[in-house]
Amino acid sequence: MVNKIRTAQEAVAEINDGASIMVGGFLGTGSPEILMDALVEKGVKHLTVIGNDAGLPAGTYGAKTARGIGKLIEAGMVDHLIASHVGMNPLVGQGMNDGTLKCTLVPQGTLAEQIRAAGFGLGGVLTPTGVGTIIAEGKEVINIDGKDFLLEKPLKADFALIRANVCDEFGNCVHSLSTKNFNPLMATAADKVIVASEKIVEVGGMDPDNYMTPGIFIDYIVGGEKKWQI
Amino acid sequence: MADLKERIAARTAKEFYDGCVANLGIGLPTMVANYLPDDVHVVLHSENGFIGLGAEAETGREQVDLINSGGVYVQHTPEAHFFDTAVSFGIVRGGHVDITVLGAMEVDEHGNLANWIIPGKMVAGMGGAMDLVTGAKKVIISMLHTQKGKPKILKECTLPYTALGVVSMIITEMGVMEITDEGVVLKELHPDYSLEDIKAATECELIVSPDLKPMAEE
Question: A132: which of A51, A142, A162, B130 lies 20 to 30 Å off by Cα?
Answer without folding.
Answer: A51
